[in-house]
Amino acid sequence: MVSGDVTTVMMVSLVLTVGLNTLVKANLSKGMSNFVFVAYSNLFGFCFLLIATTLRYRNTSPPPINNSILFRAFLIGFFGVFIETLSYTGLRYGSPTLSSAIEDLLPAFTFIIAVVFRMEKLDLKVKSCQAKIIGTVVSIAGALMVTLYKGLAITSGVMRNDFFLSSQQSQWLLGGFFLSVATFSASVSIVIQTWTIKDYPEELMLITIATSFSVILSFVVAFIAEKNPKAWILKPDMELVCMLCTGIIVICTRGVVDAWACRKMGAVYAAMFSPIGIVIALAMGIVFLGDTLYLGSVIGAAIIAIGFYAVLWGRAQEESKTSEKHEAYGIISSSSSGSETILLLHTSKDTMIT
Fold it and tell me: Which GO terms describe its cellular component (predicted)?
């Protein structure tokens, strides 16, 4: 029941992340520096990871790390800072709803990248593959709808129909652009994580090393980009709470959970949970931030959901066929020291595989 365990953990992680985005948006609107926020969040996250790693390996030594794994850990750390900076910049210009809507593109982007790097098979004659391709295209169309079209303001008395963004709404478009680039980068990062975790199946150690690089890079970026020295002063207020929660939930917990999901189920499966966040973000944004719910967001989210479930259906069909093939051959998958091995127990003489 590994799939069920991964699904539960990923769902809890997603709910916490979307809820945190609502809190971060509120503080960014009050003038919190997103560059300093990213730097301190990574620092706090690294401290928690370092403690956890020390406790995890207090009696045993972690597997040795070669230069290839170290370089890939650096790439994960680099993309982590890049993604966070763009995400919170986009969140400042947009909203948690827009952020979650654009993140719905994560499965589509990840599927495309996985196909390019041959981590996913592409066979146009198979229905499951056709469903994933169609779902990918539909998801992209839905994200464009959310970004470029607002439409009627459903939750306010303002009745307007903006088919294209006006100059007053340019921040929404700018936020969508930053969030789209961040989402694509997140897909690249997931693929790199999946590639790395198969060669070095120690999620906690890998994410700790990657976060150490993120801390260095994020402080360098913040020192260059942030010109206000007062932004570095920590006070016992909601900004500090945001930084601590982000360090624990996003940097530490979700970082390890995502890497674990990549090892267990693969890059595309790990990316499939982001579309669910749009429903949570819509509700929280309206209730806690007073966001206006636009018709374009509702239609775009619905389109993205259709694309998401098309990809999910295609994935489920592939897993079903794989299970049937394993049962026919009598194959059982087991793991030893974090690496997956396949044991052939028996093959029926009367079974013919065509």
Answer: membrane
Reading the chain (354 residues) residue by residue, the pLDDT tens digits are 444 555 676 667 667 777 777 777 777 777 788 889 889 999 999 999 999 999 988 888 888 899 999 999 999 999 989 988 888 888 778 776 677 667 767 777 887 887 787 776 777 778 877 887 887 788 777 767 776 677 777 765 444 444 444 444 667 778 888 888 988 998 898 889 888 988 888 888 999 999 999 999 999 999 998 888 888 888 888 888 888 888 888 787 777 777 777 777 666 666 666 655 666 666 666 776 666 777 877 787 788 778 777 877 877 777 677 666 656 655 444 444 333 333 333 434 344 343
| Structure token pair of residue 76 | 């994960």
What distance in Å separates the CA atoms of residue 45 and residue 34, rounded to the nearest whole number?
16
Q: 3-state DSSP: the chain helix, strand, coil percent, rounded to 5?
A: 75, 5, 20
Please state the pTM of the whole predicted model.
0.68
Domain boundaries, the chain: 2-325
CB of 242 within 8 A of CB of 23?
Answer: yes
Residues 344, 37: Cα–Cα separation, whole Å: 51
Angle between helix 170-199 and 67-93 (nearest 10):
160
What type of residue sits at position 174?
L
Close Cβ partners of 42 (under 8 Å, ≥ 6 residues apart) = 80, 81, 84, 211, 214, 215, 218, 247, 251
Q: How many Cβ atoms sit within 10 Å of the Cβ of residue 217?
A: 20
Provide the 3-class DSSP secondary structure of residue 340.
strand
Residue type, 50: L
